[in-house]
Amino acid sequence: MSNQLLPTIADNLLKFSSRTAFCIQERAYTYQDFSDCVSGISQALQERRIPEQTPVGIATADRLETYASIFALWFNRLVFVPLSPANPAERNRNMIEQTGIKHILAFDQAEAAIVNANAGDESIETRGLVSQHPTSPKESSREDDMLYILFTSGSTGTPKGVPITRKNLDAFVRAFFQIGYELNEQDRFLQIFDFTFDVSVQSYVLPLYLGAGVYTVPQEGVKFLAALKVLKEHRVTFAKLVPSTLQFFKPYFGRIELPHLRYSLFSGEALPEDITREWARCIPNAVIENHYGPTEGTIDCLYHRWKADETLAYNGIVAIGELYDGMEALVVGPDGQAMESGQKGELWISGDQVTEGYWKNPAKNRESFAIRDGKRYYKTGDIVFQDIQGRFLFCGRKDNQLQIQGYRVELGEVEHHVKQVVGRNVVLDSYVEKGVLSLVLFVEGMAEGEKEQIEASLRKKLPHYMIPGKIVSVGAFPRTVSGKTDRGGLRGLL
């Protein structure tokens, strides 16, 4: 198997021409269909004579044309910037301005207008663009070519652009397969993620690299029910999900049977041990893994294979385990010193998967990256520690530690104790009242009497300064487009 992603996928367009590349909205598209679409869009781009390495927006949708647009850009050494119709208009406008986007690929003018009201002549309609002439990556392609720019939330309210290069993505793919998965062109991969979430890249790049199939989940309707339908009816063998999805699946655990699922991977947020154990009964033949990685580290860079007879967790959260091949890490204390085994500190990561820095943001780069012993590290902001075997355990965000009445409080510890009482999604946060910082607990679907149970249980287990001053019941937690719990949305309920 080649170490280079794009040439391999270009070869697969011919090699597996009659096999299913995508199943979208119950319609199957072959590798030939996909190739024709990529070629048609590629020709349209070439006619525009867009300079290489120029960022180009894509009005993303659950369509073959969206996926084909991505590869048409990559094959022409152009840079993919996803513009989601689910984003607020102001966020898309900010990303367009930051990257200087002049062209937007969209199925039609209506979809272009949703992500950019001023698209006009700048948009390129992809509807009906097909060509029988195969296309492939330009020979001038280099490993430092940017492939995509994804935007993450910024503390100032302005999203930060994270450019990922061919070198970064090639390193991720190479390291991922060195874990030792038994996967080939016969496998079927689930794609549930919005294109603005970097795990989506994994969900279509890996199967296309193998000559396998991508089975997408419709973005409209009840998404988790649609995901279950795709998993079952299409006999999906590989599924990557965010842990929050399991909370939606949970009421149906007694009826879910997915014997054909062989790999069940999670990333994007903390994976609770208790619900993982319940999920395992639904997928008796599957390997379950917890993966970890910031967008700045190209999708994922650590992993832990969960085993029913071996619990490796902290505060009820499954370990993030060991590093991907080619990656290095430090656990760094508040004063910058490297911590020893068992000591908590901030996780710093280094290696070929790590981005060169934020898009045109030198101030943030100075803050978020550091040189140590000649190696460049990204400061993740996540608090971890290593066990005696060197495996990493996740404790929470650096900003999820608060000083309450002079005491340091780890929010994850309190959340862990509450989950033992209610067994559902909970989020602990803070609020200021009359100049005093206090804790607030959000509980999803809290039943009558549970508030008193929570308070009584916490008083038995935790010191007074760790007891929430407010407990708020929320019918259903708000979600981000990537499926994660929207903490900002919860704060808005106060």
Note down, in words, how this protein is organized.
This protein is an alpha/beta fold and 494 residues long. Among the domains are: 5-241, Rossmann fold (3-Layer(aba) Sandwich), CATH 3.40.50.12780; 405-491, 2-Layer Sandwich (GMP Synthetase, Chain A, domain 3). Helix content is 29%, strand content 28%. It contains 14 helices and 27 strands. The chain has a 5-stranded mixed sheet. Strands 18, 19, 20, 21 and 22 form a 5-stranded antiparallel sheet that branches. The protein is globular, with a radius of gyration of 23 Å. The mean pLDDT is 92.
Low-confidence stretches: none
Q: Any idea of the CATH class of the domain at 5-241?
A: Alpha Beta
- CATH architecture annotation name of the domain at 5-241: 3-Layer(aba) Sandwich
> Percent range for helical residues?
25-40%
Count the E strands: 27
Report the average pLDDT across residues.
Answer: 92
What fraction of the residues are assigned to beta strands by DSSP?
Answer: 25-35%
| Main beta-sheet annotation | 5 strands, mixed
The CATH superfamily name of the domain at 5-241 is ANL, N-terminal domain
How far apart lie the N and C ends?
53 Å
- What is the strand arrangement across the widest sheet? 11-12-13-14-17
User: What is the CA-atom radius of gyration, in angstroms?
Assistant: 23 Å
Label the structural class. Answer: alpha/beta
CATH topology of the domain at 5-241: Rossmann fold
**Spatial shape:** globular
SS summary, helix count: 14
